[in-house]
Amino acid sequence: MECKQRLKWLMLAMICPLIAGAPSSMSKSDNSCPKENLNIIGGSFVLKDGYSHGSLLKYICPNGYYPSIQSRLCQGEQWTPKPKIRKPAVCKKITCPNPRVFENGEVSPYKDKYYVNDTTTYSCHSDYILRGSAVRVCKPNGKWNGSTPICGPDHCPDPGVPPGSSRAGNVFNIDDKVTYRCERPLTLIGSKVRVCQDGGQWSGTEPQCYADFTYDTPEEASDAFSSSLKSDLGVSQQFEQEDQQGKKITMDQGGKLDIYIAVDASDSIDEEDFTKAKTTIKLLIEKISYYPVSPNYEILVFATNVSPISRIRNFKLNKNERSLERIFEDLDKFTYDNKGDKTGTNIAKAYSEIYESMVMEKNSNETAFSETQHIIILFSDGQANMGGNPKPKVDQIKHLVTRNDPNREKKLDLYVFGVGEDVNQEDINDFVSHKDEEKHFFKLPDLAAVQQMFDDMIDESTSVGLCGVVWEGLENKRRAFPWLAQINVARPPKGSNCMGSLVTSSYILTAAHCFLEGDTPEKITVKLDKDLIVKVKKYVLHPKYNITAKKHMGIKEYYEFDVALVQLEKSVKMTSTLRPICIPCTKETNAALKLSESEGTCKKHGKRGACVEDAKKAEGIEVKNAVEVVTDNFLCSGGTEPKTDDVACKGESGGATHVNKKGRVIQVGVISWGVKDICKGNNNRFTSVSDSRDFHSNLFSEKIRSFLKEHLENDNIGNPLTFL
Ligand SMILES: *[C@@H]1O[C@H](CO)[C@@H](O)[C@H](O)[C@H]1NC(C)=O
Ligand SMILES: *[C@@H]1O[C@H](CO)[C@@H](O)[C@H](O)[C@H]1NC(C)=O
Ligand SMILES: *[C@@H]1O[C@H](CO)[C@@H](O)[C@H](O)[C@H]1NC(C)=O
Ligand SMILES: *[C@@H]1O[C@H](CO)[C@@H](O)[C@H](O)[C@H]1NC(C)=O
């Protein structure tokens, strides 16, 4: 009822201007309109307000028809528009536009008019390929469904002719081939031959013509390598099924992944380069560790012979040792002198060793082998000068994995990084995979460019906000401590300086003793990264922090619960030089270490005993029982047993005490106080003496953890942490 009335009002509102415009002289007393000649052929009508002035007559037609006149209005005793006796209103059939012009094909049935529910089918003359809808139905709104069909000359689009190349093959239908050549002296990189596939795409990668001096920029290489690698590392959110277009199946997270890395260490590589090469491998492995997969690794160094650093079989067998730390250690242990005869560049031998390892894997479990994704990455700076042509070895590897089944080609990725100008690009182009739209050969001027490339490799979407991601091998020292914050509190005449650590994008963890009563947020300056100064919104001390709490017991200054959180006004943007450190007992940290939540990272760290006893040697402390000073809420470091620790100096208060686990850094304490300040007067590096001890607020302590949890879980400026 209500609805109808509303409809009426709506109608009136529309009609009102017309009524107002009608000349009043024409109106009669009755004002009603005639009842004759109003019918519609093939339909009916309804009246809003009978035959009286202002009533609206609306015509109704059955499905698939439309009225020749939509409606009439009673106005000045007449219906407008006027009904014509000769040409009454009629219900007409709805038609769809005529697909008369259809080049290079047939429309069937071919008719003058197409009505609702009429179906047309389209076919192309031979040698032409239909794109668009082959069957279209006329819809009640007078439109065809689907999309416009086109008969094109070819199944695949013209693959073009890249600069510097020439192409043989001008027919682009299914299974047709095109072949490329580069003008002399350029080398073809990419696919020499491409085949038009079912899905209308060309196989392989577009060829490019490289001169000797042509290099991939680190950005180009990093984009191409990561987009290719990503499909193996299961970054893609949905698990694509193999479709007609021959798209690859993305590995699920539990997928098995074996990675073989071979590094050229021949003559041309000096000691410095060799160290760089090791750093490069670490960087690569570390980058891969950010993805949600846990690959097995084999690492080989080759020159005349091949020296293994890590074997895939051992990696798989020693469950306890399959950590990245372990591989990094082995890499560090492997020195320049271990390399043996350095005169040759025996690429064939390197591939041959990888082949042997793969055969062993296959023999050990054939099912697992066939389910595994195999990645082989070779770094070489020169031309193979001994051991013969590596191509047959590469072919053996291909055959082992694919068993000549083209559908299995996706299980193998062969990458080569050619470093420097001696690289024989033509040979190497033959060793790599040529997968659809993926690049597998990269040519870079030097190892620094390779490092930069790996460095750029992780796109921000996958790594931003990851805690504890550091890189120690590179020039930029800030990258080793990206969480570092310098805190200055202005208190004329002399302010105080502390360190802190970024723990979320808007919180900095530091020591409570950095602040005194009356310090307001605007007096605090926080410096992050190089010159990034950020504003402070507020700071909170641990509620139990009380420096005078044990004065009466002979402890002049008491530092239990010496922790504070500084909240920034705005959350900071994460970069490779500005990232949070990991906080224990959080989901984020467990993810970093790839631990299950139940395994957790909430175990206590730190050695005690003698360490705690030494606290009594501190100035201003006169207690019998050291535990009065150093409660369980402290971690203790320093001394010379079992190993000589680094020491904390004044001005480092509030800084992070951290451990490096599997290449990710976790903060375990906040530097609080020490027995001796042995940094004074000394030069740069300070090492501990037997009784120089530092004490750190223990982040594993229940009461400190609950303080952090309270604030960091409810971070409403940055991204909050989830505590376990
Ligand atoms: C078109 O087909 C639909 C579904 O079969 C039917 O409901 C509708 O009445 C048909 N329309 C005409 C105009 O035949
Ligand atoms: C058009 O509609 C018909 C009938 O509903 C349907 O069979 C056909 O698949 C549709 N075509 C497209 C391309 O949607
Ligand atoms: C081989 O691997 C498959 C799948 O990965 C596994 O289910 C099977 O138990 C393995 N067989 C042996 C003997 O380890
Ligand atoms: C600190 O501890 C002392 C000694 O127990 C006490 O008198 C004082 O009120 C405490 N201060 C605060 C702020 O709790």
UniProtKB/TrEMBL annotation:
<dbReference type="Pfam" id="PF00084">
    <property type="entry name" value="Sushi"/>
</dbReference>
<feature type="disulfide bond">
    <location>
        <begin position="182"/>
        <end position="209"/>
    </location>
</feature>
<feature type="domain" description="Peptidase S1">
    <location>
        <begin position="470"/>
        <end position="709"/>
    </location>
</feature>
<feature type="domain" description="Sushi">
    <location>
        <begin position="31"/>
        <end position="93"/>
    </location>
</feature>
<feature type="domain" description="Sushi">
    <location>
        <begin position="94"/>
        <end position="153"/>
    </location>
</feature>
<keyword id="KW-0325">Glycoprotein</keyword>
<dbReference type="InterPro" id="IPR018114">
    <property type="entry name" value="TRYPSIN_HIS"/>
</dbReference>
<dbReference type="InterPro" id="IPR035976">
    <property type="entry name" value="Sushi/SCR/CCP_sf"/>
</dbReference>
<dbReference type="InterPro" id="IPR001314">
    <property type="entry name" value="Peptidase_S1A"/>
</dbReference>
<keyword id="KW-1015">Disulfide bond</keyword>
<feature type="signal peptide">
    <location>
        <begin position="1"/>
        <end position="21"/>
    </location>
</feature>
<keyword id="KW-0732">Signal</keyword>
<dbReference type="InterPro" id="IPR043504">
    <property type="entry name" value="Peptidase_S1_PA_chymotrypsin"/>
</dbReference>
<keyword id="KW-0677">Repeat</keyword>
<dbReference type="InterPro" id="IPR000436">
    <property type="entry name" value="Sushi_SCR_CCP_dom"/>
</dbReference>
<dbReference type="InterPro" id="IPR036465">
    <property type="entry name" value="vWFA_dom_sf"/>
</dbReference>
<keyword id="KW-0768">Sushi</keyword>
<keyword id="KW-0391">Immunity</keyword>
<dbReference type="InterPro" id="IPR002035">
    <property type="entry name" value="VWF_A"/>
</dbReference>
<dbReference type="InterPro" id="IPR009003">
    <property type="entry name" value="Peptidase_S1_PA"/>
</dbReference>
<keyword id="KW-0378">Hydrolase</keyword>
<keyword id="KW-0720">Serine protease</keyword>
<keyword id="KW-0399">Innate immunity</keyword>
<dbReference type="InterPro" id="IPR001254">
    <property type="entry name" value="Trypsin_dom"/>
</dbReference>
<feature type="domain" description="VWFA">
    <location>
        <begin position="258"/>
        <end position="457"/>
    </location>
</feature>
<keyword id="KW-0645">Protease</keyword>
<feature type="domain" description="Sushi">
    <location>
        <begin position="154"/>
        <end position="211"/>
    </location>
</feature>
<protein>
    <recommendedName>
        <fullName>C3/C5 convertase</fullName>
    </recommendedName>
</protein>
<keyword id="KW-0964">Secreted</keyword>
<dbReference type="Pfam" id="PF00092">
    <property type="entry name" value="VWA"/>
</dbReference>
<dbReference type="InterPro" id="IPR011360">
    <property type="entry name" value="Compl_C2_B"/>
</dbReference>
<dbReference type="Pfam" id="PF00089">
    <property type="entry name" value="Trypsin"/>
</dbReference>
<feature type="disulfide bond">
    <location>
        <begin position="124"/>
        <end position="151"/>
    </location>
</feature>
